[in-house]
Amino acid sequence: MPATALNILKTVYGYDAFRGLQERIVEHVIAGNNAFVLMPTGGGKSLCYQIPAMARPGMGLIVSPLLALMADQVAALRQAGVRAGALNSDLPPEERRALWDDISAGNLDLLYVAPETLLSNGVLERLGRAKLSLIAIDEAHCLSQWGHDFRPSYRQLDVLVRQFPDIPRMALTATADAPTRAEILAHLQIAESDAFIAGFDRPNIRYAIAEKDTPRAQLKDFLKRHQGEAGIVYCLSKRKTEETAAWLRGEGYDALPYHAGLDKAERAANQQRFQHGEAVVMVATIAFGMGIDKPDVRFVAHIDLPASVEAYYQETGRAGRDGLPAEALMLYGAEDIALRSRFIEESNTPDERKRTERSKLDALLGLAETAGCRRQVLLAYFGDEIAPCGNCDTCAEPPTLFDGTISAQKALSCIYRTGERFGQAYIVDVLLGAENERIARFGHDQISTFGIGTEHDKTLWRAILRQLIALRLVDVDHAGHGGLSISDAGRDFLREKPTLMLRVPAPRRSRRGKAAKSSTQSVLPEADQALFQALREKRLELARAQGVPPYVIFHDKTLIELAAARPASRTEMAGVPGIGEAKLERYGEAFLEVIAGFEG
Fold it and tell me: What digits encode the pLDDT tens for the residues 220-271?
């Protein structure tokens, strides 16, 4: 291993050793080889290109999808003493000229650029005159036509292969199934032998999925465990985003909305508040999140069904990037399944794409309805195998299963005898023998399935129907008003009558679960908590003075280490992981003063 790489790791980043595959990847790229890197969020992907870019002669060119992400990464690198810059369309003319002067003079270690800017007039030609150490394409899954974050401009990045054939190329992502990986390798001409797959597991995230009951009450219960912490709440629509953010503000949370319909300046201001704040809750559509670099997001909640397993993995992966405990909650119901299915059927896409999207939705529903370990099902989708994790809701409280064969037959029969045009609530009322004007008007109080389901309550029948929809035994009229009908698979089931095991929904008090260890305080001894908070306050003060996010100064994990070690000198502080030479010089005295105040 070149000494320069280990030296950079220690002096710039403050770490004594690489993690996982980092060392092999760094060594491979420094030697001039291409690399495809699949590593979970928080696994240290950025070091895999930043260190080789500094170790090799020239400037590293980093293609990144979002301006806000680039700004954060450049700010963090500059805090660590690295010469970094970002080229984007928002730069004022004088700053752009100064940046190009630095590029021409060889004064930069790393240059971040969005693909659209890279491909604009003259940029590639001017970069061709600079000495490049490597080219790294971050969030590389964006080039896959089948991916959930497809960016057309990423498809054009194969021009880099032709223009810079002798410069090492890197493609990095945290989420890519096997077909997406193959597409990235082929498009960027990276050999299979240059692929480094570190796996997908994020053991610090606790996964929980529950049926929607009273979503706001369920979200409120969840957020009680995260007072004073930052997190993201994902909604499907712009309207719901606005309404949920307003409701949370009324409940005392510093909640902000984020969606594509907001004014650009308001979106940017809200994102900056989230990045720079310590306890901001961002309520957002999927327009928010790709490449979010904030390491101290302690929770992600979906109050609507996400688009796919890949989207769920990527969105929940924004929690706990610092490796500290985090939580992910997803709420969903039959209406969500119907809406997602409608999106697929009404999309103006080829039939092949629709088939792919249907299979992706089926995989997500399999994750939602599993009675086994959530993490096992999630990782199996990406080809990973693990033992039951012990850190998800189904491991903590295994669901009860029952033989639902007869119940399913009753439900399907009721759907058939009511004409295959009524929604879930109506079918449940008929099965329970409800006496209401609508049932009487249609004469469904006279059919054979009226009142045959009194062995179950409304909650269980609703769960049964939701599972039948998830199992594709029941179809939903997407274009109409959610009417249920029996699918071909459902008709086969009625003929063949195979045994069908279904889940019993957990009682609401159980779904709230035990208070998970999800905050930074959960990993701190009580004796260190006051000092940790004081260090956070000092960090926030220093960050505000510079107009940067607090975490670019030090991560929470570093503050926890400081609170535990309580160094009394710069020499002792230099031994704390995460404190490189530039940060020690810049911030050592300020934090040592805070620590000294707790030693008296």
Answer: 999 999 988 999 999 999 999 999 999 999 999 999 999 989 998 998 899 8
Are the C-beta atoms of residues 14 and 576 closer than 8 Å to each other? Answer: yes
Quick one: which of 331, 314, 364, 380 has its CA closest to 140?
314
pLDDT at 72 over 80: yes
Token pair, residue 546, equals 């510079």
The dotted CATH code for 3-197 is 3.40.50.300
What is the distance between the alpha carbons of residues 574 and 563, in angstroms, rounded to a whole number?
14
pTM for the full predicted model:
0.81
What does residue 258 show for φ and ψ, rounded to 5 degrees? -150, 120
Class of domain 400-505: mainly alpha
Residues 6+ apart with CB under 8 A from 599: 566, 568
Does 200 or 146 have the greater pLDDT score?
200
Q: Where are the alpha helices (DSSP H) in 21-134?
A: 22-30, 45-55, 67-79, 93-105, 115-118, 123-127
Give the pLDDT confidence of 542-560 residue by residue, as tens digits: 999 999 999 999 999 999 9
Q: Which CATH number fits domain 524-596: 1.10.530.10, 1.10.510.10, 3.40.50.1970, 1.10.150.80?
A: 1.10.150.80
